[in-house]
Amino acid sequence: MGVSLQAFLVLGAVVFCIGLFGALSKRNAVSILMGIEIMLNAVNITLVAFASSFLHQQPKNNPLTGQIFAVFIITVAAAEASVALAMIIAIYRRRNTIDVGEINLMRW
Amino acid sequence: MHVDLASIAFWVIAIVLVGASLAVVLQRNIVHAALALIVVFGAAAGIYILLNAEFIAIVQVLIYAGAVTILILFAIMLTQHSMGRNSNPFSTQWWLAALICILLGGGIIYAVGHSVMAIGTATSPVLLAGEGSGVGGTVVRLGQLLYSPFQYSYVLPFEIASVVLLVAIVGAIMIGREEEE
After folding, report:
1. What are the C-alpha distances in Å from A66 to residues A10, A91, B53, B108?
2. Residues 6+ apart with CB under 8 A from B35
3. In this structure, what CATH number is given to the domain that contains residue A53?
4. Which of A24, A27, A34 sits opposite B100 (nearest CB)?
5. With contacts defined as CB-CB under 8 Å, which chain B residues touch A34?
């Protein structure tokens, strides 16, 4: 008995939804960023699972493309985390809070 | 029913991953949430090892569990008045977020169960690490597909990604810099 592709996809969906809940329901900006990182990890799990399910394909079909996408997602996530944390620190220095309920300058 | 080692490893890692993700979201103290995030990244690296993606697993440990977690912990230290018990509060509309997440999760799981795949099926077993002998490691093939200047490869997007990282470093320094009068 092996593990099916479906199990990996469902695992990715569950972890993605947990991360989305964290990103939507938190007041602390750093906590929202942690939820986004969990979501990116769930997407990476899905992509690597697809790549792994195509490993028995011919090499000319490039079965590892999913892993390439995962590498690029990790790169962009690192860039995003550094810029977002710099923005959080800049907002804290100016307004002395990182509660997203109080940072409401652009609120409709 | 024959149960092999890779399946047991998958279920153990999956339970740890979901539990640590819930801990990140539900923990009242934000430092504890950040520490649970390390467990999430480690469990994801275990999943990658299981899926024959050794390079992704090592990069995951280096970048996420090493760099991003330290960055988040530094941001928490610089922005918290006190590391109190209630430093990670929910907003007043958390029930709406929970409803959206449950609907989205149900939709994705329904789609996974009922969609038709172009190649193979969703229920056919994935070749995990340690099963079979033909697959072996994927690091060499991944490196050829990522860097090779002679055959079909992703070398140009890779160079653009390095430019993106450079721009992010410069932008982070510019945004986070102290304003001097």
Report:
1. 17, 37, 10, 19
2. none
3. 1.10.287.3510
4. A24
5. 24, 33-34, 37, 72
What is the ipTM, given to two decimal places? Answer: 0.91
Q: Which residue of B has its CA nearest to A41?
A: B44
**A26 in contact with B, Cβ within 8 Å:** yes
The string of pLDDT tens digits covering residues B9-53 is 899 999 999 999 999 999 888 899 999 999 999 999 999 998 888
Domain membership of residue A43 (yes or no) is yes
Q: Give the domain range for residue A43.
A: 5-95
Q: Is B52 helix (H, G, I), strand (E, B) or coil?
A: coil
What radius of gyration, in Å, describes the C-alpha atoms of chain B? 21
Distance CA A7, CA A49 (A): 10
Alpha-carbon span B34 to B76, nearest angstrom? 9
